[in-house]
Amino acid sequence: MIAWRPSVRKSQWLVLALMTAMLAAPTWTRAATPRDELLGLVPEDAAFCLVIQDLRSHALDLINSPFFKEFEKSRLSRCLSGDQDALQLQAALHEVLGVLDTTWPELRDEIIGDAIVISYRPGATRHDESERGLILIRARNAPLLNTLLDRLDEAQAQAGDIKVQVRKHDGDSYRERKDAKGQQYFYVDQGLLAISRSEMAIRNVIDRHHSAPKPFESTVALQLGQLGADKALAALWINPRAFEARMAQHASEAGNEDVALHRAILTYWKALTGIALTLSLDRDDADLRLTLRTDATRLPEAARKFVTAEPRQAEVWARFPEPAIFTVAGRLDTAGWDDFLSTFMEPKVRAELVQRVNRRTEAIGDDFVKRILPCLGPDWGFCVAAPPAGSDAWFPHALAALRIRATTDQPAIDQTIVNTLYFLTGIFVLAYNGDHDSTLSLHRETRDGCTLTYLTNDREFPKGLRPAFALKEGYLLLGSSPEAIARFRAGPLTAVSVPGRKGTGTGSPRPPEGERGGGEGASGANRVGAIPPVAEGSEIPLARLSLENLRLFITERMSDVARHISKKENLPEDEARRRLSALCEVARLFKTVEFVQQSQPNQISLVLRVRPEAPLK
Amino acid sequence: MNCSDFENAVQRRLDGLGAPGRSELDAHLAHCPECRTLDEAASRLEEGLALMRASASMPPIGMRERIVRQALAERRAGLQRRRLTALALAASVAFAIVLSRNWLTSPVRPPANEVAHPSLKKSVRDAQLALTSIVNRTAGTAIDEGRSLLPVPTSFETPTLLARSLDPPVRTLRITSSRVGESFNPVLASAKDAVQFFLGDDRKTEDGQEK
Questions:
Q1: What is the pTM of this model?
Q2: What are residue A495's DSSP bridge partners?
Q3: Does ipTM exceed 0.85?
Q4: Is residue B75 within 8 angstroms of chain A, CB to CB?
């Protein structure tokens, strides 16, 4: 009874001490991860740093995933695995693993599965002594790492490729491996492996490794955290500061006409505080993400507007037909872009460009750049969708849309533009018919209150192609046929989310289902209401390719599409069918490929996202 | 002997049809670094084939023709390859998955080599060549197939008048955008240097000139 009380007190103190230590030094506990340990050894002046982490669990998740099982069953997998180059690669890797007496699962799980870091700093001049490259690996099986390195040395020494010497620094030893191209240096300590062609770099690693653990994260780790790149399977960090002097020198060497451009680029570059390219694998998608972080206060006014403006989704996402095969849409502040582009040009070059543009657009009105350009946009888009089922016109519906805004200066700009297009189309038809055997016919008609102009050529155009244009709902529309233009949704929009979108934004405005109709001219030009900005960190779609819808379209219209390709490419129809079937085989594995933008204060990310049909984990 | 003669000689040697005397080949190799690379590739191939015959682990069916074709094609296709790099990356991911089906998941150890190993470094180089070839071919095929499958009507060309009218402003913008690209050359050059640094490519030829 007496004996246990002090021991309980002791353990309570111990627990309290541990908790206090953990609370007081949260960054220290975080730094214990293999990735952070390696990043602590990376020189702060690195220009590039590639981090690969947790390869073991990512690889195992992928190999055991439903997607992988589907992939194995696919024709693509069979083609690739029977390929002669694949066999050659397999033979070569087989040899390498044979020499090391190991297997890929062992190498992946025991040696490179936790973290790999590769950093590089260019030399003062190309490939000089100050160039530094470093490969760092944290192996979880230290004895195996030592064994493999010994086998590697032995095999290469036997083949006469290298000579190995042991060298010392700060009481520790490292290996110098001399080969035909120079020296390589290997430092190994309790599962840590550092490789470099620079002896100084290895010595620096040893110094850092010997110094006491630092109670703060490394510069690279902090930067990756700020850029949202700390959890990715692979992340490439680019340090803008490492290139500033070189870019300044490059700018100083530029010719007179390029001075403004180089000066502008250098200004933008100096405003960048970090760049990261990451690859992440989630259960439902794989993301390739480019993130740029800027100090907006250092940007010129014209560019600052783009960085600080509230991100909004293009309204046309809600007006294009669904289900679509491919959609690309965005917002472009044409007036702002004119200022922005001007920062890259010498005043003389810009004046020449403006003069050239104005001279070629005099039919629409004088001073296109100043008076007409601000009326165009900001919303624009392009969409391709399958024609409705049952229609004998197989050609896909393609639709391009550009918002036209009437201003007090240009109250009827939309009508002016459409009349000019009509005039130019007429001239084009005359010219075409003079040169070709088959003739184009120009038509104009009104449907649902919308005046359509379209061309026909029954001999040359595939069934369903009748190029058309019209004004509708404040947009200038160019379509593959009048039917495609009719599918552009009209009417008021309600806010709903875009399918498959990440983030918390309210999404795009969407018209009520089934609503049709439309208008034209000045009455429709300003009908569209203001689009609410998306919530911070939400995603804005920029482009989407639906492989699911593409596959459905090809499958349903195989005969027509194959016949068209056979004629266009001068191929046998069976060959065209074979190619289309192969495309469908690949498309069967994936739902969509998307390109989205994600904005946060002073930070913009562009994401290429692939969504497979079956989960990746 | 010129480069073309040398290529033919290498082809004949690999086909077992005999080749000109070594002294003639060496004389050409002495002043042609490109052909030296080809000669090295051919020697590696012969060593690799000898090794594979000894271990009988992989049948060399059609391999010599393919590798020679690959080595020759590689010399001609450098520029196109750079353009395809992005797609090649995607293809390599797919390829890595395929490869894993056969052996990346297998815990079975490869048999120890029964003959002296030609060179680990050369095996790695062969693996690089094979991987480069397959990803470039996959990417090239994807681009060609994609182009042919686009349902663009053949007869609907850009009107000459419109193209001519838009040409001068478009040209100015194109020149500007290309100059913008050029101003990032210090970054791109460093990235290229980094890749060379880690892949261990020869940075200088034997006479000290930058490649």
A1: 0.75
A2: A509
A3: no
A4: no
